[in-house]
Design brief:
The complex is a heterodimer of chains A (315) and B (281).
Chain A (H helix, E strand, L loop, with lengths): L10 H9 L6 H11 L6 H14 E4 L7 H12 L13 E5 L3 H10 L7 E5 L9 H13 L4 E5 L2 H5 L3 H15 L4 E5 L8 H14 L3 E3 L11 H18 L4 E5 L5 H14 L10 E5 L1 H15 L12
Parallel strand pairs in A: 1-2, 1-8, 2-3, 3-4, 4-5, 5-6, 6-7, 7-8
Chain B lengths: L29 E2 L5 E3 L6 H20 L2 H17 L1 H12 L3 H21 L3 H5 L1 E2 L6 E9 L2 E5 L7 H11 L4 E5 L6 H11 L8 E4 L3 H10 L5 E3 L5 H11 L5 E3 L7 H5 L2 E9 L3
Parallel strand pairs in B: 5-6, 5-8, 6-7, 8-9
Antiparallel strand pairs in B: 1-2, 3-4, 4-10
Classes of the chains: A alpha/beta (315), B alpha/beta (281).
């Protein structure tokens, strides 16, 4: 059923639905995220978490200075993160700008990495300040180039001025465009949404409009994927699952640089939505520097001594 | 006036210019020469070492770029700060080693002089061991000493302050950053010395001080792949072979030194870089 039978695509039905949402207890969310962050994950559980986190990484390069060579190097790393150890799993996806999608797809296929999807950031990333026609063309370009995951940004200006239906319609349009060809991840840019209530509202708008994933941030704004924000989004996903029986994924992106940070996120996932979400198909971590730290922790576990950053690649 | 309760100092670690407790939360007991209780300094863990290495690596980059003159001035400044607190150090040494305040003061003064001595070397090293090499061809060929990077040091048990100065000064004067494990028996002067460093313009992270068990931490110093050199002067002889084996993995430069000041202590943790440059047009 369209929009899960919860709204019918009109503004009045969306507003009615959003009014039913409970508010977020800010202190409670922060305290719970902080409490879960104290969980100590060691030895074999840690090794398992490291490999899981590697398989969830959306290995990302979103710089003005990206070159085809850099994208290809990143593809090599995505397929085989540690060139000295073939037991390391491939990452969840490669995440690049639109014009690099074809280069990444072609190179991945040529090195035996056809199982690694290419995600493209879309709809005038990162600001989202462009006409709908441009956003649609932007997404279409990425799909044509072979992207199987689209990371779109919401119109924060519209959201913050209360035009929820505008945000909803944009997501719904891009959803239709993606069809069955691509997964849709909707970037809320929580660092610009100011309150946890807004994060929860935006999460529901995105999920109702057809997002497969809701994603915290572009990585261009700080703060990004802080544990309380991810917790609030996971709770929205949990509530949405209870309501519709549909599983929506979450992608935490931005500011996750160390293995410790990544494992904290996994604990949040497990404790909020359950172990079913501990899979790259339902939880992703958008990062670039994180992968090296995960690999170094893996080396420490394997060799028994601390490695040096000189032994992992510089991206 | 009522008897006031003395405010005792908590001896913590010194990492990245801050004074954290050990991440492990552990402490151990340090006694004076008669066995009486003195303090509970932190018992650092391998994770404290790991964190210190990350910070030292970053700090080394800007410290090595500072001019030799500037590094010398900062070491001299450390000596100035130490001179001003001589009495505090003398009483700590006296309590730990059971020597008179007068004798202890002598060690403090020797330590100040040692710092000044090493400070003077900073801008003379390239003249001492650098060279323009005679080569057959229209080229200049220079060799200049460069700092190694991150160096570990296990301070000796003999002189709690002087031995500590001997461990750090020759390493940092050339532009290395150091992670030093203070004397296990008598770590208090080293930790008080951290307060001297904190007020002497030395960039945070260049000198990081741990206190704790030598036999526990020395192997981790040796095996850590991101530590480039290691001074094992303070490691007992029966432990040295193991430490050297553990350090072989990344070809770590491992040295131990006799007492006293020597430019060899500086040069042991430098590398010679040779460059070619065409002569003329």
């Amino acid at each position: 059923m369209e929009f899960y039978g919860l709204v019918d695509g009109t503004e009045i039905s969306l507003r009615k639905f959003l009014q039913t949402l409970s508010g977020v207890d800010q202190i409670g969310a922060e305290a719970r995220a902080a409490m879960l962050a104290t969980r100590s994950i060691k030895t074999s559980a840690k090794n398992w978490a490291i490999d899981l986190a590697i398989s969830m990484v959306d290995l990302t390069t979103l710089e003005g200075a990206d070159t085809p060579g850099k994208v290809r190097a990143l593809c090599n790393k995505a397929v085989r993160p540690d060139s000295t150890d073939s037991s390391v799993p491939s990452v969840g996806a490669i995440c690049v700008y639109n014009d690099m999608v074809a280069i990444a797809r072609k190179h991945l296929d040529s090195i035996g990495g056809s199982h690694v999807p290419v995600a493209a950031v879309s709809t005038a990333f990162p600001s989202g300040r462009a006409s709908m026609a441009v956003k649609i063309q932007d997404t279409q370009d990425a799909l044509d180039a072979g992207a199987t995951e689209i990371d779109m940004v919401i119109d924060r200006g519209a959201f913050l001025s209360g035009q929820f239906q505008v945000v909803f319609d944009e997501i719904a349009k891009i959803r239709t465009l993606c069809g069955t060809k691509a997964h849709l991840k909707v970037i809320l840019e929580t660092g610009e949404l100011v309150t946890y209530d807004n994060v929860r509202t935006a999460s529901f708008i995105a999920m109702l409009a057809g997002a497969d994933f809701i994603k915290t941030s572009t990585g261009k704004v700080s703060p990004a994927a802080t544990p309380p924000v991810v917790l609030v989004m996971l709770e929205a996903v949990r509530d949405f699952h209870q309501l519709t029986n549909h599983k929506i994924g979450v992608k935490a992106a931005g500011g996750i640089r160390t293995t410790k940070d990544a494992i904290k996120q996994l604990v949040l996932v497990n404790e909020t939505v359950g172990s079913q979400w501990l899979s790259p198909s339902l939880f992703r971590i958008g990062a670039s520097a994180l992968l090296n730290d995960l690999l170094m922790q893996r080396m420490k576990a394997r060799d028994g001594f601390y490695p040096s950053p000189s032994y992992v690649s510089i991206d | 006036m009522s008897d006031r309760i003395e405010v005792k100092k908590t001896y913590k670690l010194f990492i990245g210019g801050a004074f954290p407790r050990s991440e492990s939360g552990r402490t151990y007991e340090v006694n004076d020469h008669k066995g009486g209780f003195l303090a509970n300094p932190a018992l650092a863990s391998r994770k404290d070492l790991r964190d210190a290495v990350v910070i030292a690596r970053t700090a080394h980059i800007s410290w090595a770029k500072a001019t030799a003159y500037n590094r010398g001035q900062i070491l001299y400044r450390i000596a100035e700060m130490l001179e001003g607190r001589a009495d505090q150090f003398a009483s700590e040494i006296s309590a730990l080693d059971g020597i008179s305040i007068k004798e202890a003061l002598k060690e403090v003064h020797l330590s100040v002089d040692r710092l000044v001595w090493y400070a003077g070397w900073s801008d003379k090293l390239s003249a001492l061991v650098g060279a323009t090499n005679p080569v057959s061809g229209p080229y200049f060929n220079f060799s200049i000493p460069e700092p190694m990077g991150v160096v570990g040091a296990i301070a000796t048990e003999k002189n709690s302050l002087l031995g500590f100065i001997d461990a750090i000064a020759p390493i940092i004067v050339s532009g290395n950053s150091v992670i030093v494990l203070a004397s296990e028996r008598a770590p208090l002067p080293a930790m008080s010395f951290a307060e001297v460093l904190a007020t002497s313009d030395l960039p945070p992270g260049v000198c990081n001080i741990l206190t704790g068990s030598k036999s526990e931490l020395a192997p981790w110093f040796a095996s850590h792949m991101d530590i480039d050199g290691l001074d094992i002067t303070g490691v007992e002889h029966d432990l040295r072979a193991d430490v050297k084996v553990a350090g072989a993995e990344n070809l770590k430069r491992i040295h131990s030194f006799a007492d006293g000041q020597s430019p060899a202590r500086i040069l042991s943790f430098m590398e010679i870089k040779t460059t070619w440059h065409p002569i003329g047009v």
